[in-house]
Amino acid sequence: METKQETPQRAYKNLLARYKAFSNRIPLLGWLCGGIGAVLIEYFLGDLVSYYLGLPKVPVLFGCLIMLKKPILIPGAVGYLLLVYGLPVFFIARALATPANKLAAFLAKGPITIAALVHLGLLYAILHIWTDMSDYRVLVLKLTMIAVMLTLSLNVINGYMGEFSCSHPGFMAIGAYTTSTITLWLFANDKLFGEALLPAAIGPFFFPLALIAGGLVAALGALVIAIPSFRTRGDYLAIISLAFLFIVKSIIENLEFVGGPRGMSSQPNYSNLPMVFIVMVLCIWIINNFVRSTLGKALCAVRDNELAAESMTVNTRKTKMVTFMFGAFWAGVAGGLFAHVLRYVNPGSFGIQRLAEILAMLYFGGLNSVTGSIVGAVSINLLSEALRPLEIFKWIIIPLLLILVMLYRPTGLIAFTEFKPKELMRSKE
């Protein structure tokens, strides 16, 4: 009986050991090259492969939508994933393991910035080619990158600071409306603001400044919460921040010069894929540096034991206020991008459901981890899109999945793990 019980476990462990041994020989550069090969195969041969597998068209989201709409097409969709993505990535990464390791070792000798730009360039090439086949893919990818920014910025507050904030959709709304007001007022002929004050041609160059303005106004809104909240301890921040969310939503609904409950529309199309990608990369880089800085270490000390941190000369109230405003700033920037991706925004976009989505992404990925926030945002966002054909049942499956994660991984999938770009980009020879 013992042998029969141990055999499947040994087989699983052996399989896992072989996979680790294989993957440990291939650097990130090799996997990125495999990804480029896979998306190029899909770009040039996707229609042909889908035709011979009996699929009506190229799957837009890794075959998930096709499999849920028509279960009879599951074998074809799985075959498509293997032929277009799985096998090409595996064989190309394996074939290029040696040259990729040599290139990674060469890049490691130079500045980290050069190596990071090479890796980011390959990643963007994969995303650009993949989205070039469908406008739906472009929209899903943009919203996923915005979700990464929102989850990271909330993790700074709820994770690294150890407080529970419910105001992120409010900060997102402030950033969205501030940025939209600036771009519509200055660069668009709009029914709310009339004739454009400046030529539309300079709008894309001015857009980053509008995003920063939206983030700064959101940070000022965070200051309104922080001043009364951080005079006390306990759960007061959760109550005050939730009240702030409802106040912001109510104010926007009653401001006719920004559209009231009808919202604002016709925002200029400034949030293209390169813009959203660059802002997301900057967000990850800055937040990662922030949590690893002296202020970030002080923040973790405040989270673990506020009294002990005070005794070690840490200004706990100032640390909390700066962190809270920092997280709100990036939520405002994400809101500005969100408004210009959809080119329409209304108060209903920033309610309790939005808060639930951001919290789900945060706690699914894991607290106190930049990597966990990225994994959680990408996983929940793509899963939500993949389950869209199930309609109402989608909102049963996702909560059940979250419950399972909370039962077996209470801290999330990846928690208390530092994001180390140097380790990711190093050679594995």
Tell me the helix content: over 70%
N- and C-termini, Cα separation: 42 Å
Indicate the structural class: mainly alpha
Uncertain ranges: 1-5
Residue-averaged pLDDT, rounded? 89
Strand content: under 5%
Q: Give the tally of structural domains.
A: 2
Short key terms for the protein model shown above:
single chain; 429 residues; mainly alpha; 2 domains; two-stranded antiparallel ribbon; 18 helices; 2 strands; 73% helix; disordered N terminus
Could you provide a short overview of the structure?
By secondary structure, the protein is mainly α. The chain is built from 18 helices and two strands.
Explain this structure to me?
The chain has 429 residues and is mainly alpha-helical. The chain folds into two domains: 130 residues, no CATH class; 291 residues, no CATH class. Helices cover 73% and strands 1% of the residues. It is built from 18 helices and two strands. A two-stranded antiparallel sheet has the order 1-2. The longest helix has 27 residues.
